Amino acid sequence: PHVLPFATSRSLQQATGNTFPLLPTDSAQGAFLTQYVADSLGLARIAFFYLDSEHGVGVREGLVPEAERMGVELLASVPFTYVEDPQVIVDAALLGGRPDGVVVAGYPATAGPVMRALWRRLPETPVVGSDGLASNPLALRRSVGPDRGPLHLASFWRFETSKSCSEGFPGWLG
User: Fold this and answer.
1) Quick one: DSSP state of residue 124?
2) Model's pTM, two decimal places?
3) Contact at 8 Å (CB) between 24 and 156?
């Protein structure tokens, strides 16, 4: 048997009967992110940007149907990669209308520039980030830059459980 303490890929569901992930899948996280933006933040219209990867696509597979189920209007669902100009991606997505908030699934090096481009256009727009963004708070801070808008990070796991780490986390983002 394979016990996977930190694996969240939705493909693990297709693995043999000997694979046991201990965490919810990325698609479960996508559903949770939708519930968070609707129930906790009260947002009715969102845009979704996701890294075109196993993680981002997995989050999308949970977010899109949950948004439909909850009546959250999804103005744009936009994949991105490491090579595109993030301002072009954001500007094209905003042609669909102004979102109340944005969900981003990715990692600091790739999603940070997308968030920076978004906040250039809509500085006060709240961004809710997947656990991939929480994986390296210092890299996220560098990637996003100094002009940040409201940011909420959701994580189903914590690799560091010391009290000093969790208490210091908000300060890492400035």
Assistant:
1) T
2) 0.82
3) yes
